[in-house]
Amino acid sequence: MSDKASFPSKSVHIQAGEGTGQDALYASRRKLHVRSVRGRFARWRWIFVWLTQAVFYGLPWLQWNDRQAVLFHLTERKFYLFGAVFWPQDVVYLAILLILSAFALFFFTAIAGRLWCGYACPQTVYTEIFMWLEEKIEGDHNRRRRLAAAPMDARKFGLRSAKYASWGVLSLWTGFTFVAYFSPLRELLAAAAALSFGPWEWFWIFFYAGFTYAFAGVLREQVCVYMCPYARFQGVMFDPDTLVITYDEARGEPRGARRKGVAPAAVGKGDCIDCTICVQVCPTGIDIRNGLQHECIGCAACIDACDEVMDRMEYPRGLIRYSTENALRQHWGMKEILAHVVRPRTLVYGALLLAITVATGYGLATRSDLRVDIIRDRASLGREIGDGLIENVYRLQIMNMVEFPREVDINVSGIEGARINSTRVIQLPAASTESVTVQVRVPADAAGPGSHPLFFDVSVRGDERHVVHEPSTFLLPE
Prior knowledge:
This protein is an alpha+beta fold. The protein is 41% helix and 20% strand. It is built from 16 helices and 16 strands. Strands 8, 9, 10, 12 and 14 form a 5-stranded antiparallel beta sheet that branches. A 4-stranded antiparallel beta sheet has the order 13-11-15-16, with no helix packed on it. It has a 3-stranded antiparallel beta sheet with strand order 3-4-5, with no helix packed on it. Strand 9 and strand 10 (389-400) form a beta hairpin. The protein starts with 39 loop residues before the first helix and ends with a strand. Residues 1-23 have low confidence and may be disordered.
């Protein structure tokens, strides 16, 4: 994007180093008392707050096959996701999920900027909830500012204590819910009644609760400004056709106050009345009128606030709006903006995202729910047992990846006359792994000395579709 729209410095006073003639390495924090705002984008933010938290807090309570529908059971080393059971061998799907998330972030950022940050990021969501609790207890932004400046007395102590307590309860419940994704909720509830959590459960409940409290209650905008790496590299994914929050400088300047209903031309001013409400509602405290800045999380609170002011002044809405650099420069409408959504960058991101999604969906749909791993006993490479037979010993690890018991047959092929001299029928409990020792015998004259390919055919009784053809080797001594 042009220099005008690229990321200028945040308008925060930098303290000069006393007695050194140099700037300090940090900016002193300015406590933000964010003003609440109403409007269409504020409604969308709260829709996502309710949606994300309904999913997060609700999933551990959802039952499926007499267990939690979503449970990453670390003790059993199984991940349950509704009807699917994933094992440590399926870690490739976690890697694919991370790749999909990255390309989705690139794709949507290239189209419409920081949608994730503004509406669905946990930092945004929990900050929104914590600020709502703060406003309900301490009052609006003006009352909170006066309370912060007032000396400590009984009233201030009571309000602050109530606020911090509400934050603490919400944080602890959030930490408890987080742990419920990794330890069965029924066990956690029983442990909670007696306060008998295990050491790791205690640690993670308080660890996650502490970070929720610190990030959403104490640090807030500092997380987005200083700690989040996305704020720093987002500009790489922007281009002049990326839809971002913009201030229409041509329409708004020069700024200046005036009475309601006064036409801007009559006082030689632009539409901006310099009320600074757009700054007061910003959760990171920036002035969007200075251009696009890396601190902007794309929440659109300034759009709602400015539209409300424009309505009161009887001016057209959209002084601050979603637009693009090219649209501002060439005075495009929404039709022209949407026409430039499809461009090389978005096509590449979209094609990669679609290809990976389709491939992953196909892999999950065709994933075998019966898996066999074979290890040949190296302590006995091949031994003659009489009657002209040679025996090799194998250990089979058979995984039943569905939540009902099965009966499987084990057969061998690949060498003429090969047969199994041990149990061929195995009972597999639901969602379990069984280790079986198998002796395979082959006539000594079936092949020459050396290593020969041997195949184990493991099939589910009554279901011919589920057959695993797993290769191994058979050693014939000289």
